[in-house]
Amino acid sequence: MSIQSPVKIVTTHVLAEMKQRGEKISMLTAYDYSMARIVEEAGIDVILVGDSAANVMAGHMTTLPITLEQMIYHGASVVKGSKRALVVVDLPFGTYQGNSKEALSSAIRIMKETAADAVKLEGGAEILESVKRILSAGIPVMGHLGLTPQSINKFGTYVVRAQNKEEADKLEDDARLLQEAGCFAIVLEKIPAALAEKVAKQLVIPIIGIGAGGGVDGQVLVIHDMLGINNEFSPRFLRRYHNLYEEMKVAIGHYIEDVKNRDFPNSKEQY
Ligand code: KIV
Hints:
Radius of gyration: 20 Å
Bound molecules: 3-methyl-2-oxobutanoic acid
Shape: globular
Order of helices and strands: HEHEHHEHEHEHHEHEEHH
């Protein structure tokens, strides 16, 4: 994205305005240049280079193994394919927890080496020092509360989070702390819709939900899930807009057939 860009760029300020006027924010993940171009041209507001790349791109069971270098590779590829959308890159597991200096240097690497617009971190009070340090360097931060996949080994399960009062109260406190620290938005993942709506009403910054109901300020999905490229994941909150796994398999089957039958290439498809 260039500052001379003739198209209107979605900034963190634009997202705040969208919340103020009640316009819902659309966000999807992308991990490569070609997919970024498609979601960009479709008119998405925010592209998340999620560490879900560990699952859908690399085939890992959790998001924990992905490295900073790999996130930088995905982030830089996505930024090249985006013009108008705000691009947010996840800080991967182990690059910001427990050491705010390391958190800042990880975030600086993301910003310098990808040219993304912001970073996203999972957690509340326990990572607040890292969030503040990153913000102090002028790097916009998106928070992420509720089901935080980088902590899956602590939770032990992907069930809906914050269903009891203690956890719900902590989530509300964490959301407030992140806003006070200066985060420009927060993702709430897989929590009761009523709680997500309450947080969205209490906070002035945009709340983006995934499995958090319709009472929040925007929605995010993993692109491989919503397009049906990934057919191994069917949570209740997911709406599938396509069945690309099957459609791509059929198309590839036709290609294999054409090669085997000597139908491809024909005389017009050669030099
Ligand atoms: O990594 C990711 O794709 C995410 C979304 C699920 C919000 O964090």
